[in-house]
Amino acid sequence: MTEKTAITPPTHTAPPAAFSHGVRKGNILQVAGQVGFLPADPAAEGQAPTVAGPTLREQTLQTLANVEAVLTEGGATWEDVVMIRVYLTATDHFAEMNEIYNAYFKDLKAPPAARTTVYVGLPAGLLIEIDALAVLG
Questions:
Q1: Following DSSP, what letter does each residue of 22-67 receive, concatenated?
Q2: Which of 38, 64, 65, 75 has its CA 20 to 30 A from that of 49?
C-alpha cells in the first residue's frame, strides 16, 4: 500500500492545527485551502502571517503562488491539476477573480475543472481561498 506523505513547502508556516498544506498518496496530491499569506523566509513560529495586500488581485495572485508552491513540493505542476475550488467572501468578486484566473491559466493545455463558492468564514481581511487536486503521471 502506498504511504501518505504530508507536504509543506519551506516558505509555508506550520499549520495552526492538525492538517497538512498538502498530502500526496501515490499519484494523487491534494493541496489544502491556501490563502494570500506572504511566504515566510524563514517561517517564524508563533508569528501571525502577513496578508499579501488588501485587494482581491494581490490576494488571488499570492494564493495561486502558494498553491503552486505546494504542487511543486509535491512533484506536480498546474498541468497535473484536475480540480480547483475557489472560495470568495463576496459575490461581487466573481468577475474580477475570473479575469485574474483566466489570465493566470491562459497557457494551460487543458484547464482544470473548477468550482467557485461564496464563503463568509475566512479570517478577517482574507478575500479568497483556493484548494487543488492533482493527479500525477
A1: EEEETTEEEEEEE--BPPPTT--TTSPPPBS-SSHHHHHHHHHHHH
A2: 75
User: Is the model's pLDDT at 50 over the cut of 90?
Assistant: no
How high is the pLDDT of residue 15?
Answer: 77
Read off the pTM.
Answer: 0.93
Give me the residue label for grid cell 468564514: 121
Those residues with Cβ within 8 angstroms of residue 97's Cβ, 6 or more apart along the chain or in another chain: 56, 60, 86, 88, 116, 128
H or E, element range at 74: none
> Does residue 45 carry a pLDDT above 70?
no
